[in-house]
Amino acid sequence: MRPRLVIASAFMLFLELALIRWTGSNIVHLSYFTNFVLLGSFLGIGLGFLRVGRTSAQPYYSPVVLAGLVLIVLFFPVTVNRETEGVLYFTSLSTSGPPAWAILPVVFAAAALVLMGPAELVGRCFPELPRLEAYRYDLIGSLTGIAMFSLLSFASAPPVAWGLITACAYGALLQPRSLTRYVALVAVPSLVIVGALAMETFTAGALWSPYYKVTSKRFDFSGVPIMDISVNGIPHQQAIPAVNRLQWERQYALPYERAAVTGLDDVLIVGAGSGTDVAIALSKGAKHVDAVEIDPKLRELGGTYHPDQPYSDPRVTTHVTDGRAFLEGTGKKYDLILFALPDSLTLVSGASSLRLESYLFTQEAMRAARDHLKPGGAFSMYNYYREQWLVDRLASTAQAAFGHKPCVDEVGSGQQAVITAGVTADAQRCVQAWAGAKADTPPPAIDDRPFLYLHGRDIPSIYLIALGLILLVSVVAVRAVAGPFRRMRPYADLFLLGVSFLLLETKNVTGFALLFGTTWVVNAIVFAGVLLAVLAAVEVTRRFRTPPLRVMYAILLGGLVLAALVPNSWLLGLPLPLRAVCAVVVAFLPIFAANVVFAKRFAETADATVAFGANLLGAILGGCLEYLSLISGYESLLVVAALLYLGAFVLLPRTARAL
């Protein structure tokens, strides 16, 4: 039973991560609703636990639904119209394929049904073991699932590898009580999944980075060699010889004209991509370039196919990491720092609205750039901003960071703009003074609320509608699968523990992304660290006598107060090793205390699967409440979590208060 529980739990988490990753690569709407699949997965996992004891049938529906989802996504992908250019946010560009209102409900429902199967298999193991022992092996399995997916990401394994693991897991976990049904409902769907993903892998010519499905096309245009690169179906960048790029688009030359530097001994390029910006810097006389690119496959394509071969130049040092993390971690100073079109077009997994580049465009990030400039140095950024308010917002952010107005050059179409700020006003050469931000320009983005593309301080209606429907569907599904809600009424406190824990996890994911970078490695380490903290709490509760629940709740609230009092700005000022130690203590103390509370309460529940299901369903509401950060910032999630934990304490049954 124990090995089966570990395998089923590992498969459940692996399948959840693979679904989030793969659907987001083929349906561009999910680049802006990353936790849409996550919430569907939570619903399915909760429903799977609630189904335990209500049926003895094997969950053959899971591979059948997954095969259907794979075919639908591959035959009806949602991609951006490749003849348009610009920054994509809230799917503002035209797309091909099903509209969001048609495909998103399908993906949400399918994710719930697919994950409900493995969750049911996990849940059936719980009644066979003591409560905390079952939870312990569930956590070990979850850690194994994260490790498997992380290793595949490190190896840049294509989806067919994920499909093979999924097929093997279905084959091992679903028992063949009827050979005919097993072949029809398990073997055939598994072959469809593997075959469809193999066809995608070997015909699309895609490279799978930890962030994207990367496709490229090389061709000649009037004798000029060009490589077009798309990520997740979105036109992303081009590898073009520097001389041609400078001739065709004015923005690439402007940073060097506006910066009043006497020499380019050291240049930093954030968002180096396939290498064109690096090639331009070299052509302008840079003696050394630090090229920072977060995606290893974009760097690999540039190193292999860029016509100028900039990454082979001895003057170039490549850093595959997050741009903000590089700035916070280096002591080097530069004559020129460039943010070269760093628009990732994807979100950090597990966080509601944090994009890979969000922390690059805050007021604090631009101050960090200023602090890394030599005397007389300059900072510049350029992109296709599409909206005048966005240009003005970034310019006003630079003004706040540098203490004077920057140069703002608007060129070409699509609100193409270059914003340049010298370390002092004398270190920049503007053709004309920037007129300043208009009255309706949003204030600069800050680290606590790094949502550059949100014009107002609100939750966009597209999110509100989607979240409202998710909650409605969840309520109906729970009632249909689990029966009357009174079954879960005794575990209302566990439901609130699930809500607040999801908020706490989101706060930690975003906090660690700021402190150590938005890379997939940091993200994986944080999720694994959360599970390890939970496992440690379970082991302590199993092996030692822990304080009463009222004391543990006090420790938990104290940990939340400590987390609220320690600002990220202070942590960023610490040396990296000390920063890591302090961040871990501050972040994981409340997580540990919260899970000692959960473990003590869960160990005494009358119905383990219903109690665990209620806790998991609470995570759905927590995932919806994440979006409060769009209004009040990520720090406010600690306040909301604290109120929810107080509510959980109030709802504790009288018999549990003495635990």
Automatic annotation (TrEMBL):
Keyword annotations of the record: Membrane, Transmembrane, Transmembrane helix
Top-level taxonomy: Bacteria, Bacillati, Actinomycetota, Actinomycetes, Streptosporangiales
Protein known as: Spermidine synthase
InterPro entries: SAM-dependent_MTases_sf, Spermi_synthase
Transmembrane stretches, start-end: 30-53, 60-80, 100-122, 134-154, 183-208, 462-482, 520-538, 550-570, 576-598, 610-630, 636-653
Gene3D superfamilies the record matches: Vaccinia Virus protein VP39 (3.40.50.150)
Domain of life: Bacteria
Keyword Membrane: yes
A Pfam family that the UniProt record links to this protein: Spermine_synth
